[in-house]
């Protein structure tokens, strides 16, 4: 006698199998979605007034600023060891490309505000723990859209930062200061559109202290004169060169010079007020420039000052003044000042 199993058992067994298969297939749907979420969406550097050296040699690094590792734009939950697209649009009107400068062995474009301004170089710095070496710094253009692919690292709670820093270099030659300025850029991540527009902002001014020339004290002894050389008030004698030494640190410094009577600030003539011990001789000291009596308080521009020692050529002489002419000596003092543009 044969035993036959009901078909319903086979159908039930088949149904159970189908159920088990469906559950097993569902286990492949689990995983982590990487969004490179923005933790901090602004990269701000406010440098204030920055004093830099008056350097005439070209391409000398004078100053650098960066938010560096852990600063600037901050992202979390980025995909591991992945090339992430970055688009950054500069908003830096007024800057013009000048030349490339080597930084860390790589050419970086350098920009200037004018023909005699210092040069500025921009660097996009990325930090991501475990990222391939050599991918942390990227040259940045101030005159075009910048498109990069930056490699992320192995990840972490906060696993990528981006900051826009800058370096100030000497142009070569005489430089001018830079008025307060703000340089900005808008960065987006096409692979993560939900991050929106991210802001970089750099604000500062550059001040170059004037390198000044130095004037040295000068003493002059006039040769003796006799009374018969002064037949009347205003008569003069004993013209003697008076060369004041000046030393300048470089060529091209614009120097304006002014002579003053040391004992009478209001004196606008050319005759020095005698010192108290020599005030009654009837003779005083007169100063001349280019053969003509000076006007105390007037300013003149020194033509073509150069690096090193040079002289300011003046002339000193005796002049007869009102009052009794008596034997003795006479002394006067002048102050020469230098001003710079």
Protein architecture, described:
The protein has one helix and 21 strands. It has two domains: about 170 residues, Immunoglobulin-like (Sandwich); about 130 residues, Fimbrial-type adhesion domain (Immunoglobulin-like), CATH 2.60.40.1090. Strands 1, 3, 4, 6, 7, 8, 9 and 11 form an eight-stranded antiparallel sheet that branches. A five-stranded mixed sheet has the order 2-13-12-5-10, with no helix packed on it.
Portion in strands: 35-45%
**What CATH architecture of the largest domain do you see?**
Sandwich
CATH class of the largest domain, please?
A: Mainly Beta
Number of strands: 21
Q: Please, how many domains?
A: 2
Helix proportion: under 10%
Helix-strand category: mainly beta
User: Can you give the mean pLDDT?
Assistant: 86
Q: Supply Rg.
A: 40 Å
Secondary structure elements and their pairing?
Elements: H1 7-26, E1 37-40, E2 42-51, E3 61-65, E4 73-76, E5 83-91, E6 96-103, E7 106-112, E8 119-127, E9 137-140, E10 146-151, E11 160-169, E12 178-188, E13 198-207, E14 214-215, E15 236-248, E16 255-261, E17 283-289, E18 292-293, E19 299-301, E20 308-320, E21 334-340
Parallel strand pairs: 2-13
Antiparallel strand pairs: 1-4, 3-11, 4-11, 5-10, 5-12, 6-7, 7-8, 8-9, 8-11, 12-13, 14-15, 15-20, 16-19, 16-21, 17-18, 17-20
